Amino acid sequence: MARIIGAVVIVGSGILVAWGAATMRRAGTNIRPDQPTLAIVMDGPFRFTRNPLYIALTGFYVGLALLINTTWPFLLLPVVQAFMHWGVVRREERYLEGKFGRAYLDYKARVRRWL
After folding, report:
1. Spatial separation of the C-alpha atoms in residues 115 and 101, rounded to whole Å
2. Count of alpha carbons within 13 Å of 4, Cβ hemisphere only?
């Protein structure tokens, strides 16, 4: 059962990545986080969460742990999430606030960081 759930979570994460990436391409901005952001994306999955691609990454991680049917990745998940939150997301938010100012702050007030 864990393997079936893992496969479903991985497929769902892949769909979320494809939707988020297509939305970002339509908005004319870079998908890779190491390249400059050219626009604030507020439609597609970004209507529901400011970080759909990072949620999908977490889904891949959890799905893979279920697929290989082991528990140790779940013990490391809080460490992975803490690194993602403090090392990546918070830094990106500071960058976006500096670059887009009020427009990003308004978006941030309307849409949750996660879910």
Report:
1. 23
2. 1
Indicate the burial class of 20 (C-beta count within 10 angstroms; 0-12, 13-18, 19 or more): buried
State the DSSP code for 68.
T
Per-residue model confidence as pLDDT tens digits over 63-112: 999 999 999 999 999 999 999 999 999 999 999 999 999 999 999 999 99
Summary mean pLDDT of the chain = 96
Asked if 59 and 80 count as a contact pair (C-beta separation under 8 A), the reply is no
Name the token pair of 57.
């990454």
67 Cβ contact list (under 8 Å, min separation 6)? 2, 3, 6, 7, 10
In 3D space, the residue among 51, 87, 25 whose CA is nearest the CA of residue 59 turns out to be: 51
pTM: 0.91
